Amino acid sequence: MSPPTDLDRLSPAELKGLIVKQWEELAELRRMIGALRDEIARLKGGPGRPNIKPSGMERASEPKSPGSSGQRGRGRGDTRSKLSIDEERVIKVTARPRGSLFKGYTSFVVQDLVIRPHVVNFRCERWQTPDGGTMVASLPAGIRGHFGPQLRRFVLAQYHQGQMTVPRLVTLLRSLGIFISKRQLMRLLIDGQDRFCDEARAVLRAGLESAAWITVDDTAARHKSANGSCTQIGNGHFAWFGTTASKSRLDFLDLLRAGHTDYIVNAEALDYLREQHVSGAIITQLAEHPDKHFPDLKAWRAHLDRFGIRSSEAARDLVCIATEGALWGSVKANGLLPRTVIVSDDAGRFNVGLHALCWVHAERLVQKLDTFTDQHRAAQQRVLSQLWRLYKALKGYCKYPSAHRKAVLEACFDRIFRDQRSGFVPLDRLLARLHNNKSELLRVLERPEIPLHTNGSENDLRSQVTRRKVSGGTRSDAGRDCRDAFLTLAKTAAKLGFTFWDYLGARLATPGQTDVPYLPAVVRHRCATS
Question: Exposed (0-12), middle (13-18) or buried (19+): which is 329, by Cβ within 10 Å?
Fold first, then answer.
């Protein structure tokens, strides 16, 4: 890829040809590097990079607007009408010919940013009262510690929304003239953030109390040098994130309690135990015992000990299922998920209550099948085209539901997943397995308002994935809770139409900042009216 010694003598056509050739060689080198990395991963026993193409089912099933092909997109509109002018400067002509006439001004608007340190010395009056005491004037609202609200606002926005690391943020602040240490910056990020954590928890409660549907997903997370999981719960009006030590249904049900700590044995808890095929004798003991409410995990485990359930290692699974039932009873008793549909991928931990499956993940299973003959590939493509047509029809049903269309779609589902035989055994087995999930894949026929996929959750989780790649994991429980809380508040504010910068300014009492309403109240209103 070394260029010739004298580039000045090359013609434009020769220069263009040289650039094209170098780009081709660069693309080939990138391909070879990727292949070598895959080979190194294979030799180390790793799986290598997965070769999974993104599903085009959602975009392909969208109706095309007439005249959209070849038409340029709408412009951004007039920028000046959206700006408020803070300063006007008159620029005079330095030299003009004699006899020139003044014709007014030509406006040229420039957007700029003013960033500079601003140090205030508050001289608080001190008075001695007649009884010998001392009275000192209070600091203005928003002042907490030796760093002002605007600086705290900037730090929180840069770290949580700008995805900056702590060392880089310290370097940036020092370059701007702020005298701050890494320890002091960590205190600004973590200490005294209980009200933000409380508002984030209230966002989850408001959503689970009033939302008609939620989508859920999870991704890996690191906490205290151990692998864990970050779970996203949300819909079009809110997003909430919670980090747990593992991917289990027990942890998911604990998150669904939205901060409540009680364990309750009620009708919903007993129904859950019956669905899990728990012994009838155990269910009868729990149902007939007078104690039904337990304030915490310690009291619940003591209750199980009284029945002798925890007396052996063999009863560990039974303890886990019984605890799941008590958690589900707490969820329902606290008014959460009244008729809410939980839309997820095929992960078993999310299969609780009214459950629906993501069609994009179902279609991805067909795409991932390894084909070995032309017959296999033809059968795979035929099934994929059938799935895309059915998916488009389901989207149309969501807009205009009817009993006739419901019956037609159910029959079409059976023809695709139950009645046809392709001769490609893995594909036929997969279709049979997907047919067993018919009620969850066709939940939309009963609840047309729910989405057919979990793309919203996957998009929300990208911020968490970026945070993990940039900063690794968290070292303290307070750091973990703050990371989840501020990610929740930033995503929820954006979905409700507020900027995270304005939200922080309102909560930190920044001078001149307009008020931003309490996010849980807005979430509850939007979910109830949508």
Answer: buried
> Tell me: the pLDDT tens digits for 33-68?
877 777 777 666 665 555 556 677 777 777 766 555
Look at residues 246, 255, 278 and name the one whose alpha carbon lies nearest to residue 265. 278
307-319: average pLDDT: 71
pLDDT value at residue 144: 86
Q: Which residue shows structure tokens 């997370």?
A: 221
Buried b (16+ CB within 10 A) or exposed e, 429-467: ebbeebeebeebbbbbbebeebbbbbebbbebbebbeeb
What DSSP string runs through 437-465? THHHHTGGGT-TTS-SS-HHHHHHHHHHH
Give the distance between the most distant pair of CA atoms in the chain.
108
Residue 379 φ/ψ region, left for φ over 0, alpha for ψ in the -120 to 50 degree band, beta for the rest: alpha
On the question of pLDDT at 438 being above 80, the answer is yes
Q: How confident is the model at residue 306 (pLDDT cuts 50, 70, 90)?
A: confident
Helices (H) and strands (E) in the chain, counts: 20, 9
Angstrom CA distances, 62 to 285, 302, 309, 393, stand at 54, 55, 54, 11
Q: How far is CA 165 from the centre of its chain?
A: 20
Q: Between 425-436 and 374-399, two packed helices, what is the crossing angle to 10 degrees?
A: 20
Task: Give the Cα separation of 469 and 389 in Å (integer).
Answer: 38
Identify which has the larger pLDDT, 17 or 133: 133
Query: Interior CA angle at 23 toward 18 and 26, to 5°?
Result: 125
Higher-pLDDT residue of 195 and 15 is: 195
Place of tokens 């001289």: 123
pLDDT tens string 371-382:
888 999 999 999
Q: What is the pTM of this model?
A: 0.83
Give the Cα separation of 260 and 335 in Å (integer).
11
DSSP string, 23-72: HHHHHHHHHHHHHHHHHHHHHTT-------PPP-HHHHTSPPPTT-TTPP
pLDDT of res. 431: 94
